[in-house]
Amino acid sequence: MKVEEYVSYDGLGLAELVKAKKVSPEELVNLAISQIDKCNPSLNAVIHTIYDRAKTSAKDNIEGPFAGVPMLLKDFSQELKGEPISGGSRALRTYRSTSDSEYVTRLRKSGFLFLGQTNVPELAILAYTEPVEYGPTRNPWNRDHTPGGSSGGSGAAVASGMVPIAGANDGGGSIRIPAAYCGLFGLKPTRGRTPVGPQNGRFLHGAAVEHVLTRTVRDSAAVLDELNGFEKGAAFTVLPFDESYLQTMERPLDKKRKIAFSIKSPIGTEVNAACIEAVMKTVHFLESSGFHVEDVDAPVDGKKVAKGFLTTYFAEISASIARMEEVLGRKASYRDMEPQTWLMGLMGKEITAQEFVLSMREWDIAAYAMESFHEDYDFYITPTTAFTPARIGEHELKRVEKLALQITGKMGKAGFLKKMGLVDQMVEDAFKRVPFTQLANLTGQPAMSVPLHVTEDGLPVGVQFMAARGREDLLLQMASFLEKSDLWESVPKKCMI
Question: What are 462's strand-pairing partners?
């Protein structure tokens, strides 16, 4: 098999070739390595490789639905025993995992061969992937633009054909945003559907879940079949789904399913014309296909959702820095990490227990409202992002902002930044481009980004679908229906060259 053939297959397609003995796992590993070595110098998607380990594993008697298929893991939470996992931070660059994560354990049993880890923003906290320690990851569609974050390295790796499937997780949009920016399919499962242990019983208080980025819907469904299931010690459980997602996605979608959509930013900010066009094009297609679609906004206060998300997010980062100190064997300082990360950690220290609990209450209010909403509407459609991918470096802090953060870092106080209005401005800037994805993280619902539009200058645009908790089956049926339509925008060959 040639590399050109390798990149044309999805994960299940490669597994079928292995099963038919038309290609060996060793060959697939070598083809993946060839594609990584070819594309990574210009994309910087992979920051750590374990080629020898993958080659050794390829010689074993591999079983499972993905037997022999090469895969990359994300450099955050997806721990592989003995290998580094830095979370994009220079402070953790020498850290080695002491055990496999449950996510890795389940995927190994399904037959995947791990080739390395993909780039992330520091501590996976941003919607773009430009860590100081490893440098920016670039979008295969246009290398001047970001692939998004925090699973940006995985998005670039899959879109460029390095591997058909890469590990991802989503605490505020980190699967769906790279999917939208890289023209991929990205499903965020229901809270509790996929494993997060053994290091965590809950991941970002339940906002974050583990899954993958793929080029095809069936690969995502088949991986979900492998990850789905009870996990001991997990803080959250979900109604069991005892069928196969892979088989269920092929069932005809009931045209009586009701659909709501909105093109308004939940925080009242601008939405780019291309992102609106992507949704409206999808709405018109669904209407012409016989579905009932209504223009209805979600019954939640978007600004309260954003504030509730950030309050708990800051607290999580502060706690992550405290845990980092166990690895460092000393107190962490502003010199150990990027200014924005340190600032968010300081903000976490400013949050009181009362503020934290009240923020979590907003999560529950939103969850109840959305479950009631989905009693009337099976799907809720929005843009995945409010803008197309930013240019590399566009998010870089201004000189005055860097100076203010340096001063804050040395002082160890964040209170005066509130008075300056700098924090509020940074928050608005952070959500301006991606105001749609956080809701599903707080409510625990499943949501997906589907590649249904490309701008005139050749950048992909995603459309987000949300469903009630536990209804990944509905989302996968809708995705499968759309994948067969002319709307679906496949990754072009130029991205894999």
Answer: 451
pLDDT per residue over 50-70, tens digit each? Answer: 999 999 999 999 999 999 999
What confidence category does residue 420 fall into, taking pLDDT thresholds of 50, 70 and 90? low
How far apart (Å, rounded) are the C-alpha atoms in residues 478 and 45?
30
- How many domains would you assign to the chain? 2
Q: What is the torsional sign of CA 104, 108, 111, 114?
A: positive
List Cβ neighbours of 150 (8 Å cut-off, separation of 6 or more): 76, 120, 121, 124, 125, 126, 127, 129, 169, 171, 174
Q: Are residues 216 and 310 in the same domain?
A: no
Residues 188-207 have pLDDT tens digits of 999 999 999 998 899 899 99
Residue 350's pLDDT band (cuts 50, 70, 90): confident
Q: Does the pLDDT at position 187 exceed 70?
A: yes
Sign of torsion, CA 479 481 482 488? positive
Question: Which pLDDT tens digit goes with each residue over 20-36?
Answer: 999 999 999 999 999 99
Cα angle: 386, vertex 390, 396; to 5 degrees: 120
For residue 308, what are the domain limits?
Answer: 302-371+387-432
CA pair distance 87, 125, nearest whole angstrom:
10
**Domain-ending residue, one of 397, 414, 432:** 432
What is the mean predicted confidence (pLDDT) over 40-55?
A: 98
* Mean pLDDT of the region 376-390: 98
Rounded CA separation 72/163 (Å): 7
Q: Which residues are catalytic?
A: 74, 150, 174
Question: Does 120 fall in a domain?
Answer: yes
pLDDT score recorded for residue 419: 59
For residues 399 and 240, give the distance between their C-alpha atoms in angstroms, rounded to a whole number: 51
Closest by CA to 143, choosing from 127, 165, 159, 121, is: 159
Taking only the tens place, the pLDDT of each residue in 483-493 is: 999 999 999 98
Is 204 in the same domain as 342? no
